[in-house]
Amino acid sequence: MEVRKGYKQTDVGVIPEEWGVKSFAEIGHFRTGPFGTLLKADEYYANEGVPLVSVRDIGEGKLTFNEHTPLVPPSVVRRLPEYVLNSGDIVFGRKGGVDRSAIVQKSQSGCFLGSDGIRIRPSKVCHPLFVAYQLQRKHIQAWLLQNATGTTMPSMNQSILSRISLPFPPTLAEQTAIAEALTDADLLIESLEQLLTKNRQVKQGALQELLTGKKRILGFSGKWKEIILDEFVNIFKGSGLSKKKITENGKYKCILYGELFTTYSRVITNVVSSTNSTEGVFSVQGDILLPGSTTTTGIDLAIVSALLLSDVKLGGDVNIIRSKNTVPFSPEFLANYITYVLRHSIAEIAQGTTIFHLYGKNLKSLSVTLPTLEEQQAIAETLSDMDAEITTLEKILTKARQIKQGMMQELLTGRIRLI
Known about the structure:
By secondary structure, the protein is α+β, with helices and mostly antiparallel strands. 33% of the residues lie in helices and 21% in strands. It contains 12 helices and 25 strands. The chain has helices at 24-27, 74-79, 128-134, 138-147, 158-161, 172-212, 229-232, 259-262, 331-340, 343-349, 360-363, 373-411, and strands spanning 7-10, 13-16, 20-23, 28-32, 50-53, 61-62, 71-72, 90-93, 101-103, 112-113, 117-122, 165-168, 225-228, 233-237, 252-255, 267-268, 273-275, 281-282, 287-291, 293-294, 305-307, 313-314, 318-323, 356-357, 367-370. Helix 6 (172-212) packs across helix 9 and helix 9 packs across helix 12 (373-411). It is elongated.
């Protein structure tokens, strides 16, 4: 492949002519965390002190501490000052997620390197954030995984890390410009993550209040009516069908019970799978679907979807709740109600130990409290609007992360120059 003018081919790919290639060993000082008799477990479960950095605290580029993070007391810090981390240090885990690394922020300066960590302190000719972003590139992370030792659990050491080769601009100013551009991208991603978390929390609060009548939508009043499921719905199971019978562009749309966990949310308006099999029970618009079994917890059996499509084949182990047409109800409201209000009741009636089963005969005795059909529809629409907003934010966040990855590939290899 012809290399464009002003660029050159190197061991790390095509980079600008004035850029160089440096091994990790050239750019800083390594230290592996203390272990053995240097630092005993009973020394870092203090009530006060500085956070002990372990591999579980190392995320994608940043350290995250919580209330369960062990603390190292001042006496240990004074005894082992060489393991105190400074702002700009970069930390790796020695076991497990060896492709992850994190830079120590200013607010985290003074935390303590744990026994399962390795620290590199970049030299003054390197911008620490530039180095940290280089280590987040997919190419570098793949290299780390490929070169780690061990079979059941990958392991990392200073010798392996020292062999990493990175492309470097000739000046600290260019490194800084690249780091600042990527930091701006991170700040956008962080703000989107915070907004998404807030919206999810708002929805969670709204679910409990709206679905139980603690908070009413403007214009609605009056008591809700308690009613047993068996009074207004039939409950039965789908039949047949398996993953082997899923066919691309099949004659019938179909839903397998496992897809209720992995593919669909509270409302189904589009079905992704199809089959040519004659097995399965055809849906009626407004059917409510529950999985019939799970290997995790009984609460997971309260993952409920309202199917707003008819003539969809429903496979075995799918519990189907279908209206008797005696009491008008909103399928979307009832699906949300069962999922979020009855989840613990469903967990109690689930049967089994390693595999939990949910049977229609047990569901029939559960009671729900329903407002008027109009209020049910208003509540369902409100929750749907919240879901739509959350989905939109999730898509924007995914796009922002993709853009950042593209920026990293272009900026950190010099394909796009900022100076």
